[in-house]
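Lab notebook, page 48
Experiment: co-folding of the full assembly
Goal: obtain a model of how the components sit together before planning crosslinking
Operator: M.T.
Materials (sequences as entered):
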Amino acid sequence: MYLVEVVLPLPLHQTFSYLSDRFILPGVRCIVPFRNSRLIGIVLNCELAEENLIKNSPFTYKEVEEVIDKEPIVPPKMFSFLEWVANYYLCALGLVYKIALPSGTFSLPKKRIFLTYQGKEALKKGDLPEVFSLIKTKGYEFKTFLRKAKLSSKELLKLKKQGLIEIQYYFPEVKIPTETFLRLKPNLSEEFIEKEEILRYVNRLKEVPEKVLKNLFSSKEVNKLIKKGFLERVEYLKMRKISMFMSVPEDYRLTSLQREVFFKIKERLDKGGFYPILLFGVTGSGKSLIYLEAIKEVLNQGKKVLVLVPEIVLTTYMEMLLLKHFKTDIAILHSGLSAGERFREWQRIVKGEVKIVVGARSAIFAPIEGLGLIVVDEEHDPSYKEENLSCKYNARDLALVRGNLENIPVILGSATPSIKTFYKAVEGKYELLVLKERPYTQLPEVRLIKHPGFKLITSSLKKAIDEELAKGKSVFLYLNRRGYAPLVRCEDCHHLWGCPNCGIPLTYHKEEDSLLCHYCGFELNKTLVCPVCKGTNLKFYRAGTERVEEELRKIFPEVEIIRLDRDSINTERKFLKIMEKIYQPIPKIIVGTQMGVHGHNFPEVSLVGVLRAEEGLFIPSYKAAERSFHLLTQAAGRAGRKTERGKVFFQTSLEEHYVIKYALTQDYESFYKEEIALRKAFLFPPFVRLAVIRIEGIKEEIVKQGSIKAKEFLEKIVEEEGLEGVWVIGPSPCPFRKLKGFYRWHILIKSESHKKINQILQIFLGRFMFKGLKINHDIDPEDLL
DNA sequence: AGCACGCCGACT
DNA sequence: GTCGGCGTGCTC
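Observation: model returned without errors.
Model output:
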């Protein structure tokens, strides 16, 4: 007998062992009995076990019921990586597998029941009841058959043991949205093509969507050509459409500085081994060209590449870029794919059909074998941190871990590196490669406009916009706040509208004519009457992008105004439509939130105006300055690419603030110097490691009591374990004291040693309980909100 | 997680 | 007497 070790998708810190009479390949899924039901597990280990070893074990092992896959769906080489993740983030191994693998991996397949040859014979002889003729040919869905035949599943399993019936597992097929293109079959002669109009047309365009061709000519004629074998169908994912609006660099030659940087990377790639590199390059310095060269090198070595990008839309851009330069198979992995697409991409990767994988954070778990390089683009982006799942991992950090385990270089790229990464580079832990020059553009002309806050667009900014529009250029205005107005007040009694679930002020959205909570989605859209004094004298305070858009339409009635935020781009169709508009070569003003600064290159934008540059600096988080700096610098970086020198205007009431000062001139090093000094003085990362315990409940008093108890418990652990250099801070209410109806308190743990933090947390999570409270933890939190 | 087992309160 | 509340503990 074989003893099979299996991980199950449960929040348990253990694996389970089962018996099997046959060897099962590690990495393969199987169905196992668990309690009084069954679960899908993944085989981690399978070895022959002696009879008496099984007998003398403290467990009575159950048997593996069914093996699902023929080939592993997780390469066994990845086991140690996933185990590392579980240990580091203190998350049950089974849950790590659950988040790493495509959804549906652990959902029980449907069963279909068939008659075997013996079964058919038995039916002929009359040894089986007549209902079984139903499953003679095509089989039947298991449960439906049970009902029809009025049999219990036990009775059927008995028949299965006798070999009369057979049960097959199948996963309900999921449709993958594709589009069919038509192209010429190879080896058609030129003269032949010339004779037929449709073929000539296809020949000119190489690939034409079937629908378009049928509309242009006739369905009948096109079908005839397909039938005769002159045209063939090719299927593409629907997403390919986006490519039409995105321009990616085509032919390029590296500048001498770029070549120098690339040679340093090449040296590393040739040598092999784990090697983290920070590629620090300002916007427009050609980071993607360096990626391309490095990827080319790795592919030449016969190895594979994983490219992480922070956002789903950027995967499309990256895919286009890579497709343009490499004629190789690329897989895309991100949470926006349907279950079917994701599963298919996963299978392609496992089977080794793919050389490059591009994806958002979850792609760090891509089942690639033979990795030669990991690239993390826009390394500083907070989206690399998973916030919602049980395992709050950071894909950028995990890229380094995986790189270490696979013994390969990891390139972290950014124009504004995270403080943590830059610190490591300065300390010599990562190699720092700098791309300072912008081969196509000069640094923009910059200006600070002191702005007390009541006028949305100052006259100097208006004048500058006028000038650019007159030159036929476009303008980008950045304001990191969506909606119309973030505050609504009753002027009679000064009542301020807040969210009943979160207590945070509601934002007025004019398009929807409703008050929205940006944290829980609460919506108030009845006619607005003050709930306190019944007054209707409401006033909207401050501004979001919607209000800026309205204001601009008043000031510039003739000009095209485009708004880019989560409300205007909530579907792929809207995104495409807006992108199409942006790429039209007419002067326009684009108003956008951070959504608009993420990586999109707007053509012909020569002026960037930042409204309320101080917005975001007051968020009570140790990363507020860093994040603000990233966003402001990136907004500023949108100005004047490739064409003439751009202009950047910051409107702010806080012009002396170091973040604003250095973001305006895109001076990362000066910002870093100030920020790192603050981090050191107040003991925040990268000088300490951080973990936060968050305690949530319906009644604040109970949450408070529980938090105090938790703190006492933590201090006891610190004392009992004799740990030094560990600070347990709090408890205190979270900055957002109430969210989605739950009151929230937190306790912060700081230490220079991650090991010590984990030691405490592990004991705490295993033993501490408080009725009525949800307790979760976040290691290396991005946010303390 | 999810479910069974178990020990105390308010009901036909 | 019992129905059911959710605290506790286990799952190969």
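Interpretation: The longest helix of chain A spans residues 700-720.
Next step: discuss with group before ordering constructs.
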